[in-house]
Design a protein that fits this description.
single chain; about 120 residues; mainly alpha; 6 helices; about 0% strand
């Protein structure tokens, strides 16, 4: 912010650039985020909700991870992908997290979703 001492600029910044708590947009899916965080032993719950999409995490990461897979994911929480259009930011972060996790664990997960049989 250019003029951090300007109260009008600060109010504008807070009102329009950070309008609500990250959980506000995900209220209807918080139970799924909590279950995922419990399964993977993720302690930074707010970062998980703020940066990543639960639908993609559940679709591409194993429902019963090994201890090594849990440690790897926890080490990657906070990783960000390329930030572009606002609608795609969470998807980009999630994609980058999953790709890095797959690379580090060697577990390619549900690749059949990307490659139809015979391809």
């Amino acid at each position: 912010m250019e003029d951090s001492n300007n109260p009008c600029a600060r109010r504008y910044y807070e009102k329009y650039l950070f309008p609500m708590h990250p959980f506000e947009l995900e209220k209807h899916r918080l139970d799924r985020y909590r279950a995922f965080a419990e399964t993977y032993g993720i302690s930074d719950f707010e970062t998980l909700v703020r940066l990543y999409d639960i639908d993609d995490l559940e679709a591409f990461l194993p429902p019963q991870p090994t201890a090594e897979e849990k440690m790897t994911l926890n080490a990657l929480i906070g990783l960000r992908g390329v930030e572009g259009y606002m609608d795609y930011v969470k998807s980009n972060h999630t994609f980058e997290l999953i790709m890095q996790w797959q690379e580090r664990t060697g577990n390619q997960g549900h690749t059949a979703m990307f490659f139809p049989s015979g391809a």
